[in-house]
Amino acid sequence: MGRARPDLIRVLEENPPGPQAGIRLVRRVRTREYVTEIGPRGYLSQIEAAAFLGKSVVAVNRYVRLGLLKDVTRYGISMIQLAELRRFRRECLEGGKGGRLRRNAGVELRRRTTS
To answer: Alpha-carbon distance 56 to 73, whole Å?
Structure first.
């Protein structure tokens, strides 16, 4: 099995972007491109979530373990809902896609889950 490569996935957001808009994932495999449409309530794997956030798969996995992102396991694969990723990007990342994690991001969320 190959390495996780979020850099081979392009994310195209619907125009105008909004909470009810879906996305398209364009995955490049060798010389072909495969387009997957995901609705506003759809789920993305951690690799696809990394491409959506502009982060590495390790960073997305860390956010899930810290409780900053909620995931669901489907068929043994950790999946994250698109609405949850949009909320995380809006609330926890500075500058949107590819931005740094805000200082003290999710502290109140982690306090609630540990108490």
So the answer is: 20
Measured CA to CA, the distance from residue 34 to residue 2 in angstroms comes to 17
Contact between 26 and 34 (Cβ < 8 Å): yes
The structural domains of the chain, ordered by start, are 6-97 (1.10.1660)
- Say whether 76 sits in a helix, a strand or coil: coil
| 81 closest CA partner among 39, 21, 115 | 39
Residue type, 43: Y
Residue 73 pairs in a beta bridge with 78
Which pLDDT tens digit goes with each residue over 47-74?
999 999 988 899 999 999 989 999 999 8
- The whole model's pTM is what? 0.77
Question: Inter-axis angle of helices 46-53 and 57-66, to 10 degrees?
Answer: 100
